[in-house]
Amino acid sequence: MTRQNNFEIYYVNDTKALHLINFCTNMFLYILIFTGINFTFIYCKINNIRKNIYHQTLPSFLIISFLSSTQQRFLHSFVPKNQPFLLIHFYQILE
Q1: For residues 21-50, b (16+ Cβ closer than 10 Å) or e, as one string?
Q2: Please, are residues 89 and 66 in contact by the beta-carbon 8 Å criterion?
Q3: What spatial distance separates the first Cα and last Cα of the chain, rounded to whole Å?
Q4: How far apart are CA 44 and CA 60, in angstroms?
């Protein structure tokens, strides 16, 4: 586990575990979206750490997810333009 910029970053080397985490977090995100719960995401990219900050205040809670770019666009399409939307996206490099 590495700690950087107050984010806990976990490295998962097991492909099956990674797919399980991906499935569970995606289902959790979809439930949040379709139940209308207000949520905020933070986008953070490993290796070339950079942040896209669309919001000045810190989110009330953080969701860690493994999403493809298609899934990201899908989630963005559900978020109103006046609602801040940031995504935590940890890229996992499987050797």
Answers
A1: bbeebbeebeeeeeeeeebbbbebeeeeee
A2: yes
A3: 17
A4: 17
pTM above 0.85, yes or no: no
DSSP state of 2: E
Q: Are 87 and 72 in contact (CB under 8 A)?
A: yes
Q: Check if the beta carbon of residue 87 is closer than 8 Å to that of residue 64.
A: no
Q: Which two tokens stand for residue 71?
A: 């899934």
pLDDT in tens, 5-50: 444 554 555 566 666 766 777 777 666 655 544 444 434 333 333 3
- The tokens 């984010």 sit on which residue? 7
The Cα angle at residue 20 between residues 16 and 23, in degrees rounded to 5: 140
